[in-house]
Specification:
Radius of gyration: 20 Å
Number of helices: 5
Structural class: alpha+beta
Distance between the termini: 72 Å
Strand order of the largest sheet: 1-2-3
Strand content: 15-25%
Helix content: 40-55%
Length: about 160
């Protein structure tokens, strides 16, 4: 493992522990060249998911693309890195549970939207505006209206 600071190849493991509910190992490392510490995660290799793009191409599932999209949507919002990792894990697990080869990219986008709806309303609208390619202000109004309908409990009845 190269040191992210000095690019040195020599390091030592200072601490190891289970992470992500036992799905990964978190290792604290110290570079023997510059002395700085950094964290790495090791995950077991699993059967590769294939994502079918709109263009017809197929590519391997890239967890970092999901994380990057969530980070952009949640920028300056009260969402922690741990929450983003948990949402990414849930999305990846649900895609793997399907067991199909060639999952449509649209399904990944919808899964992200579904999780963001529960996590943070503003992040949801940000992601939806890019994913659904909003062109006009009315697109935002419509999406916020749908979001509010799902958040507002139905009225019990009118009083006379």
């Amino acid at each position: 493992m190269r040191c992210p600071f000095c690019k040195g190849l020599e390091d030592k493991v200072v601490d190891s522990r289970l992470a992500e509910g036992g799905q990964a190992i978190r290792r604290r490392r110290e570079c023997l060249t510059c002395g700085r510490r950094y964290t790495t995660f090791e995950r077991g290799e699993t059967v590769g998911l294939r994502i079918s793009k709109r263009s017809g191409e197929s590519e391997p599932f890239d967890r970092q693309k999901v994380v990057a999209g969530l980070v952009k949507a949640c920028k300056n919002r009260p969402v922690t890195v741990a929450q983003i990792d948990a949402v990414t894990d849930e999305i990846e697990d649900s895609l793997r549970a399907q067991g199909s080869d060639g999952i449509p990219s649209s399904e990944v986008g919808l899964a992200i939207l579904d999780k963001l709806r529960d996590l943070d309303d503003v992040a949801y609208v940000r992601f939806a505006s890019v994913y659904k390619d909003f062109q006009e202000l009315t697109d935002f109004e419509k999406e916020v209206g749908l979001l509010l309908l799902k958040r507002t409990p139905p009225k019990q009845g009118l009083r006379e």
